[in-house]
Amino acid sequence: MRRHLIVGTVTVALTMITLSAFASPLSPLPGPRYALRLFPEISGLPGLPSAPPPAALPTTGFPLGSPKAPKVVSERVAPGIDYFTLTHGTSTDGYTVSVVVRGKDALSETTARAQALAVEESGYSPSIVKFTEPAVADHPAADFWTVRVGAWPLGKMAEAAHVVKQLKKAGITAKVDFGGDDGFQTGGPWTVRVLMIDPRSFRGTFRSSLGAGVAARETVSAMAASADAVAAVNGGFFDIHTRKDFRGDPTGISVVGGDLLSEAVPGRTGLVLAGRRARVTELSSSVVAAAGDGAKLEVGGLNRVARADELVMYTEELGRATPSDRGVEVVLDASGEVLRPRGPGAPVPHGTRVLHGRGTAADWLREHAAAGMTVDVTAKVTDLRTGHVVPLTSETSIIGGGIGLVRDGRTSITAAKDGMANVNMIVRRHPRTLAGVTASGELVVAVVDGRAPDTSVGASFFESAELMRWLGARDAISLDGGGSSTMVVGGKVVNHPSDGAERGVGDALLIVGR
């Protein structure tokens, strides 16, 4: 049986093999091996428009499913802001059961064979599907195998769930899997919301927001309402693996109103906003504490939990007390004078900053930051594409924690650099929030709903990149997705977040009127 993995507009055959095809546990997999190549340019895509006309999208080459044009409903939200709802395709997939080993269904050949034998011994007929995780700009291709049992139409999910329970009794971990999620060929459906903002007629600004505090999470609609934003989407990924009370911290750079509030992961892609200008680029940041006696120490982090022997800085935007640990803290006023040392676990007073050190960094504070001394803390953000320092003015906002998708009009997915080089993120479909900039400076923002078999199956990284190119983006980034994907227009959530309700997120991209 053949299925196909979708990479942009290229399809690649996959091989499905029943267990009976094996001569022995060590025999090679029968059938051809399908190699996958990612072409830097895929023919048939429209050229980048110099200035898309108001309320108009391309009419050919749609990259999701059938290339015919999707159904489009458009609305002028405000001068220079056009809002589109795209629907396309029909449901063609059903459910299967996928075997899971240590939380993953993409397995090695040896593991897949062993699991398939175990499934057969439990009384079911398994199939092994071999597929290739395609190469991206900074990560090579790799082959994987997955073990599946059965196939059911959409209305029969309960029957698939029953098989999962029976396999569990036999000691086999499995899950119900919707076919549209797996990144193979599908007919959809898709629902996509798109905002196009033309800076030539739009008279507002682009901003980022961290809500009530860096450490906390807040809904996009709340952040949009607080700023009286015309429209908004969720921002980048945030750290769900840290302390519970710090899980709003962005996993990359964050600048709000010219203030660096979360440090960059060097080389990760970000969205730089200044007034009505936007650009996608790779970034690094540097924060240094220089004591009045000439001693210097790197500030390793901003508004997050400190690691061993690390100096971090907390600003009043943290929105909560600093972490209670065995570290040492000093409070600095706006000029850098050390007002007082203190123990950790207290709020950051208004108009101050707090340096927090653990281990050797705590020793440095004791020696070089006593009360009455000065510590000058300087921050710098560098655009790695140009090598230039990014001016941190009151107009500057930066949203990081995302994945590069398009560079100079070509698909260029930086999954490894951005910490997402795995089958789940590269191959499988999820809800996606995407942002890009056209050659003539328009900001394009899109939300692809997903995990909803009847209405929208989501998109892979490759499909996301091709969608943004189809929309005219010369450079594009994937922001946080999944249950975080949210678009707010006119104060209302216009998409359907996959959690069933709006999720609190780390930051947001705001489109604010005058």
TrEMBL record:
Signal sequence annotation: 1-23
Keywords tagged on the record: Signal
Pfam families linked: NAGPA
Membrane-spanning intervals of the chain: none
Residue ranges occupied by any Phosphodiester glycosidase domain in the UniProt entry: 338-511
PANTHER family according to UniProt: N-ACETYLGLUCOSAMINE-1-PHOSPHODIESTER ALPHA-N-ACETYLGLUCOSAMINIDASE
Protein name: Phosphodiester glycosidase domain-containing protein
Native organism taxonomy: Bacteria, Bacillati, Actinomycetota, Actinomycetes, Streptosporangiales
